[in-house]
Amino acid sequence: MNRNCAASMSVWTGACWRRRDCLALRPCHEFTVTSSISSQSLCTEISGVQVLACINSSVPCVMHELVQPHPQEEDNPFKLPPDDQIFAIREKERQRRAEEREKVKQQHVWEKVTSASRISRTRRVDDGIDDTQVAAEAARKARSDPRTEGLPIGRDARREKENIADFVAKKREMFLVQMSLDVKKAEILKLDARAKDKEEALNKSKQMLDKDVERFDTFLSTNDSKAHAAMKNADETAKQKQERVGRIKSLKSQLSAIQSEIAKHREQKDECLRFKDFLVNLTPGEWKEQKREEKKQRKHERRRIAVDARMEDIEERMQAEIEAEEQAFKEKEEKEKKGRRRQKKTEEDEQKEREAEARRKRIARKYPTRDQVDMEYVEYSSGEEMPLYFQEPKQLLDIFTSLEESNLFLIQNSQDTEQALEELDQKFAAMRKTREAMSNKMKLQIGQLERQITDEKSKCDELKQRPSCTMTVRAISQKHGGSEIEDLLEKLGEGVQEVHSICTHENQDDGDTLQMLARIESKLEEYLAYLDEAEESGLGARVLAEEHKKERQRRLDLRMSRKLHQEKKIEDRLKASLHRSQAPVHKKVGKQIMFRSAPLFQARAMPRASGHPLYMARRVVQEDDGYEEAVREHNIFGIWLDKEGVPNAQQPDP
Description:
The chain is mainly alpha-helical and 654 residues long. Among the domains are: 2-212, no CATH class; 286-376, no CATH class. Helices cover 70% and strands 3% of the residues. It is built from 15 helices and 6 strands. The strands form 3 sheets. A two-stranded antiparallel sheet has the order 1-2. β3 (605-607) and β4 (613-615) form a beta hairpin. α7 crosses α8 (345-366). The longest helix is centred in the middle third of the chain and has 119 residues, at 164-282. The protein is flat, with a radius of gyration of 75 Å. Residues 1-74, 122-132, 144-158 and 602-615 have low confidence and may be disordered.
């Protein structure tokens, strides 16, 4: 039964601990309920079901005060009142009880009622009274009546008869009411805890918002102060900048003035230096040599003085060290005299002299000799410039007079020399001209002979290599002659050189025509490759347009060259006719030269006396339009000339 009583009390205490858990393990200081289960309790057991109502006499009846709302907190009926209000409610309950007791004392006898009637009397629960208050009041009255000890709560003292079912139903109803009461209390505590949590969260949010507002105000004030400070700093900086700009302008003006002054002084200095150089050049060489010797002597004197001073210092240190060694040696000798026998005086003196000499040599080896000091000496210039020879204006005038006299003599001598030199130059020029003309003539002859030899050798080699062309070359040489072929080759070489210079942009004269043609061919292949790349890259229309343009230009140039050639031919013809008209008339004397007549019969075989046939030939004259000659030239040279003299590399058409 005690276990059941403890279980019934855990409903109230569990709510308190649940509230503490909801408040993050904070102790529940809003209210405190002290309960002590005494041995005297009321227990009712009906048909195996125990309905427990444990009310201790020492537990104050404050259950209904805990749930009554405070007058000031009627807005939130589920809020638990604080501790001070709970104790105030207890105090009010005590005063009410005392007042009831005083009132009962003052009542008349007929107004008073017995305790049994007071217990059995059923009270109607008002709207403003909670089930907790009813239970607490019943428990209080049960505790105040000693006769009800050990009896169940609400039992009639008169023990009216009633059946077991009603009794169990009533007890069941009481248990359900008590259980609903406990559930409501627990829910009230939960709602109250949630309300407190929400209020605390709202308070925290409000505090955080207030802090944020405060920080924002602080930030605004700080920002304003920084803005004012920045504006002030900007004003000060602008002011300082203006001051510095003004200072810079003034310094620049001062600098320009100083630079102009420096330039002026530099010009004066340059002018003075030019005058000084002029005077130095006019200075006699003997005086310059004398001053150089004096400067050299001063250098030697400075060297000697420096070396002597260094040697004196070295000798002083050497002497001081020698004296210190002598003193140390004497002290050591005095100490050693006490422990040894005296030798002869001469031997001791000689030994002392030897030891002293050895010490001097050892100390002298530590210090440099005079030669070493002389080699270590670094020569330096005193910085003194050579003084000017001219101290008075009269000296300069005397120099000018002497120079003028010597110059006049030199001018006269130079004029005589120039006259003799001109005569010699004229004789030498005439002689040189004649010699050069002779040498040039001989060189030309030698060159012509060498070229002819080379040409003949090359022709022979070519003819040897190409025996099939022997007749063709012979026919060409018979028709045009050697000089005309050379002229043709020379013209071809000039044309190839011109094309080579245009293609390669080189004006150097290369004697090998075949190499020039090879370079032209490679250049043409390169240009054709560029054109193919341009066509592949989408510039075919432009390339075609440029080709048409170049073709028109070539035709125009060809037309102009033909026109100029025709004009030149006409001009030459006019000049020739003018020359013939102006030339004197020569009468032909003698018989006219006649060509050989053609044979009168065709070639046929005629028998001879020997038995062999005799072939006779007849000359046949045919007109030739130059086709065969062009074919031969094309086969030999790879190029041929048409009737107008224009070279063509294609196969000639019949």
